[in-house]
Amino acid sequence: MTEVTFADLGLGPNVLKAVEEAGYTSPTPIQTEAIPHILAGGDVTGIAQTGTGKTAAFVLPMIHRLARGRARARMPRCLILCPTRELAAQVAENFEKYGKHLKLTMALLIGG
């Protein structure tokens, strides 16, 4: 049986390059299940243990879809709400890590 790669999931070359540079070679089970479904425009609810790549499971296809779309007058095209500062920082870190080869901008806003 062959191992699934990130390229098998349908991610674009710039996203794949960033994933490879981050040192990842194969997706985790949550990523293998979620990424193709999100790329197709579907909604996902996933449960997995800490450290299994849940954040990347939604950030990678989100970045792929944003990179393929067209920005209009620098208007926001995505909003991610997080229940804690720590999780918001983790999502922002993932966005920067995996979107570094794309012309996308991101802002981390924390209320209180």
Features of the shown structure:
112 residues, Rossmann fold
Q: Percent helix among the residues?
A: 40-55%
CATH fold topology = Rossmann fold
Q: Could you list the spans in which at least 5 consecutive residues all have pLDDT below 50? A: none
| Radius of gyration from the alpha-carbon trace, in angstroms | 14 Å
Specify the structural class.
Answer: mainly alpha
In whole angstroms, the N-to-C terminal distance is: 50 Å
**CATH classification, class level:** Alpha Beta
> How many beta strands in the DSSP annotation?
0
Report on the structure:
The structure is a single chain. The protein is mainly α. It has one domain (7-98): P-loop containing nucleotide triphosphate hydrolases (Rossmann fold). 44% of the residues lie in helices and 0% in strands. It contains four helices and no strands. The longest helix has 15 residues, at 54-68. The termini are far apart.
Topology:
Elements: H1 13-21, H2 29-39, H3 54-68, H4 85-98
Quick synopsis:
The chain has 112 residues and is mainly alpha-helical.
